[in-house]
User: Fold this.
Amino acid sequence: MGGYDPDAIDPRAEMEARGWDVVYKPHERMARYNAFYNVEYEGERIAPPAARREGVPANEVWLTEYLRPYERYILHHELNEIRFRAAGYGVEEAHERALRADDVFAGDPTWEELWTEINVVPPARVTALPGFDGELFARIQRNRPYCDMAELAAVHGIDEERHERLREAFWCFDCDL
Assistant:
């Protein structure tokens, strides 16, 4: 996608060149969001509502400490989301477009591992499972974060069979919230 060489992608270097700081925060604070930003990009202040609510200082990109092993992929996503926001797309559309841009990493084992973490997984990966649709994914997403896959059994619409499908396809950070 986009003619990128995935091995040459270094979003942290680009962010630092723009004067942005990448800051890791405790998972307890970031678990509902995983990552967000408050940056100046091409003369425009760009920050999703969560970053404004959390008081992210100017020119900082925040990530949960749990995502450190996946930094390159998360920062790539956030950088693309920022670009799409600057191009005039709303928060949700920019996020969706950034998800598609992440396909440049398809086949990379670490990226594939990240995109099967239940608190990060994009909708298409869940709705591709038999018995899952957008409405059920929305309920799963609404109840994030999960610290144990067993917590998914409490989501309305997840019976024993669906729960087993989720457990076979996904994993989650083992966290203490």
Observations:
- The beta strands are 21-25, 35-41, 44-46, 60-64.
- DSSP finds nine helices and four strands in the chain.
- Residues 139 and 153 are 12 Å apart (CA to CA).
